[in-house]
């Protein structure tokens, strides 16, 4: 389900049936959501593989085998350029590589390689496959399921997770990337097509560049 088209990839609902209007989230549930939220680094190779970071954003695991969703402009820095500019950009940068940081900013922080499985420029969405150190699909216990849009309603309490500011706050001394940031608010407007499909989800949650691709959850 698309939400906050510029910055957020998906809205995920976690609450039990009948509790979608809850104004708080259990600590254990929030910790699971944090673990499912990842930092995404898009890189080029100047002198060695992936040595130059071109853009950073957020993402979220959507299953237990390392599949993550993010925004297309996170994995393709030429997203908003003209076709001619895009060709020039990719010619000069060459093949892009991707790193996904799990448990970013914590003692359990880990970095894994990823590849883009799917891109949709119009919807600004991309799907990544994350691999473990042996080149196998990464097994993750923490992931979020995208629920039917019928679960959504106006004035629903929601939380946005991600990495505002991207990787600029990385602590070089201990080589830790930034920790996930959580902001909260409410859905404010949900315009629909004549057929009843949701066109957009507006919220008053504060998000900034770097939140791109991260989840908004109830």
Residue share in helix: 10-25%
Following the backbone from N to C, one meets helices and strands in this order, namely EHEEEHHEEEEEEE
Low-pLDDT regions: 1-11, 13-21
The order of strands across the largest sheet is 2-3-4-7-6-5
The helix/strand class is: mainly beta
Give me the number of helical elements.
3
Fraction in beta strands: 25-35%
Mean pLDDT: 85
What's the total count of β strands?
11
Report, as a whole number of angstroms, the end-to-end distance.
13 Å
Radius of gyration (CA) equals 17 Å
Shape: globular
Oligomer: single chain
Largest sheet: 6 strands, antiparallel, barrel
Task: Summarize it.
This protein is mainly β. Helices cover 11% and strands 33% of the residues. It has three helices and eleven strands, in the order βαβββααβββββββ.
How would you sum up this structure, described in words?
This protein has 218 residues and is mainly β. The chain is 11% helix and 33% strand. It has a 6-stranded antiparallel beta barrel. A 5-stranded mixed sheet has the order 1-11-8-9-10, with no helix packed on it. Strand 5 and strand 6 (110-120) form a beta hairpin. The longest helix is centred in the middle third of the chain and has 11 residues, at 83-93.
